Amino acid sequence: MKKKLINYLKEKPTEYAPSSKKFWDDEHISKFMLKAHLSPDEEGASRKHDFIEKSVEWITSLGENRSNRKLLDLGCGPGIYAEKFYNKGFDVTGIDFSKRSIEYAVDSAAKKNMKIKYKYMNYLEIDYDAEFDIAVLIYCDLGVLSPDDRKIFLKKIYKALKPGGILILDVFIENFYEKFQEKTEITYENSGFWSDEPYSCIQRNSIYRESMVSLEQYIIITENQCECYNIWNHIFNKNSIRKELEMGGFSGFKFFNNVAGEKESKDNSTLCIYAEKI
């Protein structure tokens, strides 16, 4: 364990170095992730639920003229957006790589007699062909992916959409750096988010300015384990996200402050993109 810790600490990780473990499927951590998703006033995993209502209303308005409103919810979590889209008349498919979240979503839909299709899988592995009118990827998840994985993702989404279909996603932009602090912080907990055992957490926030990448690194040390969780994010601007989407085949771009369709402003830290498959 000492050797692992030294290896984690001795140098700054290379960009998009993987975590030592998939925290979203960890038996303990996933309980806290689910709780954060379902809390209406937290933004730790999903956005606040009053904002989600506004977001669903806006996205629904984009599909009003479509006769067959099939929607693909990527990174759907426990189905908060998916259920609201279903209630708006969409035929919804939700994809997520957290088994606990998908199990919750399936159970919730069954209790409410909602015919939502959920799949526990990595959305980089989907293989749909001209099946959906709208695809959504919400909460800046695109930037979590490495450049190569972003290319794979956009090609798969382009293929999954019908001609004339639309993709709605959001990304962090440069104002994000104003709130993101580079730091090293050490804390101790008897139990908490990262483990039900006593643990120490070494959090290191880093910015890779040349490539516009940020890292939140959490090194978790218990009596018998040492794990390292790397949470990456690419920081875009309007030109860089447009370029990546164009390389994926998309066009017809429109830009907004957020996924509630608010007009762009200079002081915002996110950018929402509407893109079309022509």
Compile the SSE list and pairings:
Blueprint: H1 2-9, H2 29-38, H3 49-62, E1 70-74, H4 80-87, E2 91-96, H5 99-111, E3 117-120, E4 132-137, H6 147-160, E5 161-172, H7 176-179, E6 183-189, E7 199-208, E8 213-221, E9 226-234, H8 238-247, E10 251-256, E11 270-276
Parallel strand pairs: 1-2, 1-4, 2-3, 4-5
Antiparallel strand pairs: 5-11, 6-7, 7-8, 8-9, 10-11
Strand order of the largest sheet: 3-2-1-4-5-11-10
Q: In which range does the helix fraction lie? A: 25-40%
> Main sheet?
7 strands, mixed
**Please, how many helices?**
8
Structural class computed from helices and strand pairing: alpha/beta
Q: Stretches where pLDDT falls below 50 for ≥5 residues?
A: none
Number of domains: 2
Rg, please? 19 Å
Mean pLDDT figure = 93
CATH class categorisation of the largest domain: Alpha Beta
Strand residue percentage? 25-35%
CATH topology of the largest domain: Rossmann fold
The backbone outline, from C-alpha atoms, is globular
- Please tally the β strands and state the result: 11
- The CATH level-2 architecture of the largest domain is identified as 3-Layer(aba) Sandwich
The SSE string, one letter per element, is: HHHEHEHEEHEHEEEEHEE
Q: How many angstroms separate the termini?
A: 53 Å
Q: Any idea what the CATH superfamily of the largest domain is called?
A: Vaccinia Virus protein VP39
Describe the structure.
Helices cover 29% and strands 29% of the residues. It has 278 residues and is of the alpha/beta class. It folds into two domains: 79 residues, no CATH class; 176 residues, Rossmann fold. The strands form two sheets. It has a seven-stranded mixed β-sheet with strand order 3-2-1-4-5-11-10, sandwiched between helices. Helix 3 crosses helix 4. The longest helix is centred in the first third of the chain and has 14 residues. It is globular. The mean pLDDT is 93.
